[in-house]
Amino acid sequence: MSEGLDQSCAFPAYICGQLMYEYENLQRASNDNELNVSILDRYYSLASTYPALAFPKIAELAKTHLRKLRRDRPGTRNAIERNLLELHSKLQPSAAGAYPAKLSLEGQGLFALGYYHRKAWSIAQASSRKQSNESTDQNDTEEN
102 near 16, Cβ under 8 Å? Predict the structure, then answer.
């Protein structure tokens, strides 16, 4: 396991942790970061132990947030939905369902790593975009 996000990692628990971050990100984006209780607060424990129980509920809640973003911030919606689709495509459904039924202690650790790796990666991406935009703005100002 690497120190950062491993996009080639196929462990379902690791992917589920990343999904948890993306759903939290979706909720925050649709509510302008003003939350009393987040999806993370409400579902992290259940999702990290019984993903098959948690994620269908979380996915249903996500529909509301996606609708709101479609109306208010379509670019953000498209980016988050693309991330969700990418992660879901990495899960290999079995006869038991799309998500693992229960995660062992090791699986719970992989879930946490997936969540925090994805969060750190997302923060780094946002910081990089911000720096890029600032340097572009500065170059535009210098040219005028």
Answer: no
The CA-CA-CA angle for residues 53, 57, 63, to 5°, reads 150
pLDDT in tens, 8-53: 999 999 999 999 999 999 999 999 878 889 999 999 999 999 999 9
pTM of the entire predicted model: 0.87
φ, ψ of residue 71 in degrees (nearest 5): -80, -45
CA atoms within 13 A on the CB side of 65: 25
| Distance, CA of 48 to CA of 73 (rounded, Å) | 30
Query: b/e per residue, 9-24, with b = 16+ CB within 10 A?
Result: bebbbbbbbbbbbbbb
